[in-house]
Amino acid sequence: HIRYLNPYEFSKGTVIEHLIESSAATNSKYPIEHMADVMRVLLLYKYTGLYLDLDIFSLTSLASLNCTNFACPEDVNIITNAVLNVDKNGRKVMELYLQ
Questions:
Q1: DSSP 8-state symbol, 40
Q2: At residue 10, does pLDDT exceed 90?
């Protein structure tokens, strides 16, 4: 199912409401990509779950990681949001990520 997600309504009452209202994400050099990044993290913050970019291939079961909250490092200084898994205990980390 494809659903329309209104970023203004979806971000109401969250730590990024001001970001969406200011149009900072849509005024960036890559507005579609940045808005998708923001909405992805907000979606996981609100509802928890697993997100994998379509170009991610897992060679082993993610269950074998034996952890419920994880992200994928891009290099030693950057955590990408191409792979994210968040449960209710990880929501605080996602809130910090959004800030």
A1: H
A2: yes
